[in-house]
Structure formats: structure tokens, C-alpha cells
Amino acid sequence: MSRKAFVLRASVALLLVAAASAAGSVLKLNPMTQGFLFLLVVVFVAVRAGLAISTITSILASACFNYYFLPPLHTFTIADPRNWVALGTFLGVSVLITRLVVRAQEEAVASAARRKEIEALYELSVQLLTATNRVGALGEATNRALMTIGAKGGGLVLFDGSPYRQNVIAWIGENEDYVEDLITGVGRHGETLEFPASEGRDVYLPLMVGGQRSGVVVARRVSAPRNVLESVAALLALAVEREKFLAENANLQAIRQSEMLKTSILRAVSHDLKTPLTAMTLHIEALRRVVGTGRGSEALDELEQENVRLRRRIENLLSMARLEAGRVAPRPEPIPPGDLFRASLESLALLRRTRPIETSVERDCPDVMVDPSLALEMIVNLIENAHRASPIDKPIELVARRHPVDDGRVRIEVLDRGFGIGDAHSTFGEVSFASADDGDLPSRGLGLEIAKSLAVASGGSVSLMSRPGGGAVARIDLPAAPVISLGEGEQ
After folding, report:
1. What structural domains does the chain harbor?
2. Burial of 393 from C-beta contacts in 10 A (0-12 / 13-18 / 19+)
3. Global pTM value
């Protein structure tokens, strides 16, 4: 309250007390009635003027009550002790009523402010939860929230991975240069900053999303309490998290649709390719009956081998697509490595006619815990790649042993004496084959990619390294089957 307003209201209170005293004197009211009249004046002043003026009014009314209405009149002397009790009671009651009225007013004002704050938070929560993921929805909700809580400026600033890379989502009022430095400081240390302002104060609150500081809410020249501002910051943090979730969900939906499209395309392509491959198989068999033995028969063997290899590639691609789409899950079971080797050789009957393949399984090698069909395709693809990369008179070796470091894994190796690895690294992603005779040989064949994908789906890995003495070693590390111990008396 300004000084001028205080003087004016005090003067009005003085006039009211004087008017009540004059009215009592003219009407010759008894002391009890006059006391109630003074109490009405005190209550009225307390309602309209506040605690300080109403307290002064109570004291002034007590003085007038004593001077004009308690004998002896027109003196401040009190002859009857009972009048001391009456005067003290009047003064105490008037002061008490004054304080009660003022407190009720203050609580009413505080209750109205809290109601307004709750309405603002409710409106903000509804706006944030019902807002779509369109551009600008978060900024509009932030501006409305700041205006509702009475902020004269401020906004929402998000960090792009670092407090030094700031993205202003919404802002009201001026944005001085030092504001950016303060936001950076809040982002680095995570502490709320408050500074006095011309009206209220400036508050900088960090946004915590997923345990990380993702931004800062700034409320400038605001008088709302700290807990309200923290509630606004918490709601905005949830809104930011929601925006990220919507973006990730949209990306996930796009990836899922892409996978479905890829699967559909592969399925359609494989169908279109299998039909001519079947026709080629029939024609090869027909030509074999006509050609008989000799040079033509060898050419037909090569053609049939490539036909089988192409069919296997198509089936592998379909299997990979189904695994990546989650439509088929591997079904691991214990299987001896020797059985995998035998099944692989049976699948490569045509290749075995032209190249020796040697197998070896160490005595302490455990069984492999893997889906048999996936493991078979891994080994077959690596054998075919070794066959293409090595001279025809050099054997391919298949070796199975316990992993030298991890007892819970089995290592299967496909060894050749071919051209080796051009870029001699053991990491699969950096390996490349180089051939002096075949410039068209790709650095990363499709068979290697298929073997890698199938190994990852089976909980294993594929790596390549150069073989001492020339050639390459393709290693497949797969989970070992758990060993079941036999109890006493069991065989």
C-alpha cells in the first residue's frame, strides 16, 4: 500500500469512529449499544483497510468509548472497576475480530491464487496430453502455461545433446544475451536459479527426462510459488518425453512397414525366380539323358551345382527376412558337430565330386545348442565361399573344437588354401577376398552376409582371419549345449 493510500484510508477510519461517537452522543446510546456500534466500525475498517489501519481504529474506538461513554464522561479516568473490564474486553474483542477478518481475507486471496494455479496446471496437462504431434504444439502449450501463471516472459529451451546446443521451442518477451549463459549453467549443473526482477522474480528450472537434463523452463517476472513452477516444469518434461516417444513410435512403424515391404518383395522375387530355376532343373536332367558322359556331362554338373547354389541363396534370403521380421524364431537343440558336418556334405553332393572336404571333431568338443537348419546353412554358405576362393585341387577342412577361452561355446572352422584375405583383419565387417584371376569376385559375398546374420540370430558370431601358410579361416562361434551329469547308478 502506498503512503497516500494509507493516509486516505486512515482518515476515513478516523471519520467513521468520529461519526459513531457523534451518533452515540446524539442518540444517547447506552455503553453496551455504543460498544456494538464501535465493533461494527472496526469490522468494516478491517474488511476494507487491512490489519494496520484496523488495529489503529480499534485503539481509537476504545479511547472514544472511554472518553464519551464510560463515567466519568469526557475524561480518560475510569471510576468503576467494572468499566475497566468492559473497556479491556472491548479492546481485546475488537483487535481479535480485526485479526480474524484480515486472516480470513488473506486465506481467501491465497485460496483464489491456489485455485488459479491448479486450474493453470490442469489446463496445461490437458493441453499437453491431448496435443497431437504436429509441429508447434509443445511451444503453444508452454506459452499458454507461462501466461496463465502470470509470467511476463520466458519460454522453453531444449538441449540438442549438450547445454551448449540450445533449441528454443517457445519464448515470450525479450531474450537477452546473458539468458543463454544462464540456461547453459542450469543445464550443466541441474540447479534451479532465481533472481529478483522488477516484478516478482526470474526463475530458471531444469527439465529432467529419463534421468537426463533435456532442457530448461524459464519464467521471468513471475510471482507464482516455487512448487507451482516445479509442477509446470515436470509437466513439460513429460510432454517432451511424450514427443520423443511419438517420434520413436513413428520411426518404429516406418521400420516395420519397411520390413514388411522387404519381405513381400523377397517373397515375390523368390517366387518369380523359383519358377525358372525349376524349369532349368528339368532341362538339365533332360540334357543329361541326351548328352551322356564326357565333356558335356561335366558342364551339366557345373550348371546343376550353380542352379542348386542359387536356389539355396533364395531360400536363405527368405529365411533372413522372416527372422528379421520376427515371424520365425530359432529353435535351438543339442546337436553333435559331426552330424552338422555330415548334413553339410550331403547338401553339397555335387561339390564333393570335384573337391575333397576333410572333417575333424576333437574328442572333448561338446554338442552345439543351435537350430539345426540355421547351423547347416551357415556351414554350407562358408564352404561354398571357400570353394570359390581356393584352387580346385586344394582340400577344404571342417574342424570343430571347444572354444579356447569360453567353455560355454563351440568353435567351428572352415579352412581353405585359397587366395586368403586381402585386408587381413579378423573382424567380419572389414574382411575382403582378393583373387588374382577373378577380378569380379566380390569383396564381401552374399554367402558371408547370410552366415553372419544366421549366426547372430543363433546367439553366435562369424569372423574371418588369414590362415598361416596361405588361405583363410572362417570361424563360427556358437553356444555349447549344457552338459547333463549322470547320477550314481545311471549309465
Report:
1. 3-110 (no CATH), 139-239 (3.30.450.40), 331-479 (3.30.565.10)
2. exposed
3. 0.45
